[in-house]
Amino acid sequence: MARMIVALIxxxxxxxxxxAPGVMLFNGSSNTELAGAVAECLDQKVHxxxxxxxxxxxxxxxxxxNVRNCDVFILQSxxxxxxxxxxxxxxxxxxxxxxxxRSSAKSVTAIIPYFGYARxxxxxxxxxxxxxxxxxxxLEVAGADHVVAIDLHCGQIQGFFHETPVxxxxxxxxxxxxxxxxGLYDPVIVSPDAGGVERAKTFIExxxxxxxxxxxxxxxxxxxxxxxxxxxxxxxxxxxxxxVIVDDICDTAGTLVKAAQExxxxxxxxxxxxxxxxxxxxxxxxRIEGSCLEELIVTDTVPLRGPIPNNIKQLSVAPLLARxxxxxxxxxxxxxxxxxxxx
Length: 343
Hints:
The structure is a single chain. Helix content is about 30%, strand content about 25%. α2 (about 30-40) packs across α9 (about 320-330) and α5 (about 170-180) crosses α6. It has helices spanning about 1-20, 30-40, 85-100, 130-140, 170-180, 195-210, 255-265, 285-290, 320-330, and strands at about 25, 50-55, 60-65, 70-75, 105-110, 145-150, 165-170, 190, 215-225, 230-235, 240-250, 270-280, 295-300, 310-315. The longest helix has 18 residues, at about 1-20.
């Protein structure tokens, strides 16, 4: 009888070990290289899901591993990628979350390095959607238990989620140490518009914490229409200084290149730029290559496509996301990730 009891205990222990809740990282098709880098930082693997399309373009998802009672993390930017559109990648994320929920995952965290549809965050004219809010509603309906993003286009997007907690990480924790090592002369941090002043201020505080004092300047723009800048006016002094433009998105690079030239015209010594999300649509790369930008530093929240000019430098957010995942798994605060000596 004793042997039977011991054998039964051993059998139950083995069964429990095999079925114990675990942590699983998946990715959609928008950020496969970034997902691999995050998995490497975690000393884990990216788990298997089959993503394809039907002949008419509909997204087809199949999760190839058991996720029952597991804490699932899905890494997917809702941006354009090599073989997928913005809408494809958003639908992939939605369907992957639904598939995980239907497969009895314990929790589903959506890691969205670049949160698309964020530029329409309010009604500026009649009869238009508030797209950022509508995408937030879509992800909540899908069943996301937690959302992690990097440099949301505007902070109020976190408030568009009414049930799902949102953590917005700052790419400045990646950029600031890199800029601090460049040895800039009398550095000035430039916000390309009034809405980015808070981002520039955070950047300055980060440099200060690393012993690099800097000043701020702001470019005040007047737009003729979306994506078209009519006039620019500089508020602040950049004469004889190395300057760093700080922004979250670079799309066609027209505004960025024009801002860089404006700073040069005001006597800036060298012009750098730190842009979190390099969408780089249309003529962007050609414009950047022919611009006065000494270096454009970007992250891999959005994969770079096509030939990349020599003055573009890419830094990885993989260590930042890996630390965020680790803190979430361990139930720890993510506030440490806003310190510049933590990564």
